[in-house]
Write a structure and sequence with these properties.
With 337 residues, this protein is an alpha/beta fold. The protein has a single domain, classed as TIM Barrel (Alpha-Beta Barrel). Helix content is 40%, strand content 14%. The protein contains 14 helices and nine strands. A hairpin with a 2-residue loop joins strand 7 and strand 8. Helix 8 packs across helix 9. The longest helix has 16 residues. It is globular and about 45 Å long. It starts with a helix and ends with a helix.
């Protein structure tokens, strides 16, 4: 199944506990950025446009773990930058897993086999590698602006699987994609590479991204995914998303953004309001929740949000809607099982 039963049960229990306590805003997963430095310069990324002195910084393990514990989130997505450039990334993962947090280590995979002997990663039901794959060879290499990365990433996936690790992929799609390019890469990852699960998202228009011409609008996104999901593909692929979020992508459902559901913690602190927009930083998760004017963000409220359909804003909304409906809960169990 795309979402492991242990993880689904933990998240469901966590959400129920928050509901019983009357807590209205709580994180499902923390986007943890222990560094901004990266070994690649992807065309659609706005995360590496920091001064050199900032790119040299690495978050201490204790600071990262304490931030996650403070938030209470059951899941952590370690991103960046490239996490494998952090010299203690294996220690960070081990400390979070020890506390039974479900950890996804996001990587472009170029350094997996090259740096493997420097780290001490261990397979665990609480730990997954999440390898960035934006298309088949030509499209992926163009997206990361470097030839050969696709082949290295696929080799790394096979290497990690052979070591007993759970491996998922993360794919971002642009207006240069077609339904067929999405079908081709997801068929390849699902059927040939046999990754454990796949995450997908339309690209968000980062202000500082080198390429500003290829981000999707809402109408384009819905048409693209509606056609890509046709013919039973959506049910056949091992997608690590709730059915309602997939409905949202193809325009069968519409939601408001729940930015507080997947907050971002980086070297600068908790980022307001979300992983994709930086309107200031605060030291604690409580400050993030209490000092952010959440009502001013979202489509029709902030022009930067108008074309956003990214998973970090809308997957939490879909998950909350699923948990609030017996019908949708049963549907999720059926489709994700």
């Amino acid at each position: 199944m795309a979402i492991p039963m242990r993880q689904a049960a933990r998240v469901s229990s966590y959400m129920l506990q928050n509901k019983i306590k009357g807590r209205k805003k709580f994180p499902l997963i923390v986007e943890l950025e222990p560094l901004f430095a990266c070994n690649l310069a992807c065309n659609g990324c706005g995360k590496i446009q920091h001064p050199h002195e900032v790119l040299k910084q690495r978050m201490p393990v204790e600071q990262a773990v304490n931030a996650v514990l403070e938030s209470g989130a059951p899941m952590v997505s370690i991103a960046g930058g490239e996490p494998l450039m952090h010299p203690q990334i294996d220690v960070m993962v081990a400390e979070l897993v020890k506390r039974k947090k479900f950890v996804y280590l996001c990587t472009n995979a170029e350094l997996v086999e090259k740096f493997w002997d420097k780290f001490d990663f261990k397979p665990s039901p609480y730990f997954s590698f999440a390898v960035h794959i934006d298309g088949l060879r030509e499209r992926h290499d163009a997206s990361v602006d470097k030839d050969g990365v696709f082949d290295i990433a696929i080799s790394a996936i096979k290497f990690l699987k052979s070591k007993g690790f759970r491996v998922t992929t993360n794919s971002t799609f642009f207006n240069t994609d077609t339904p067929q390019t999405i079908i081709d890469v997801l068929n390849f990852l699902n059927d040939e590479v046999k990754v454990d699960s796949m995450m997908i998202s339309p690209a968000y228009a980062y202000e500082k991204a080198p390429d500003q011409d290829h981000f999707l609008g809402v109408t384009e996104t819905r048409e693209l995914f509606r056609k890509a999901f046709a013919g039973g593909n959506r049910k056949r692929w091992r997608l690590n998303h709730s059915p309602l979020f997939l409905d949202f992508l193809e325009g069968k459902a519409d939601f408001e953004c729940t930015a507080w559901g997947i907050p971002s913690y980086s070297l600068k602190g908790w980022q307001k309001p979300c992983y994709l927009m930086a309107d200031g930083y605060v030291e604690t998760y409580r400050e993030l929740i209490e000092t952010t004017d959440w009502d001013k963000y979202g489509r029709g409220k902030d022009p930067r949000c108008n074309n956003c359909m990214a998973h970090c804003g809308y997957e939490p909304t879909a998950v909350l809607a699923t948990m609030g409906s017996l019908k949708e809960g049963l549907r999720a169990m059926r489709e994700q099982g």
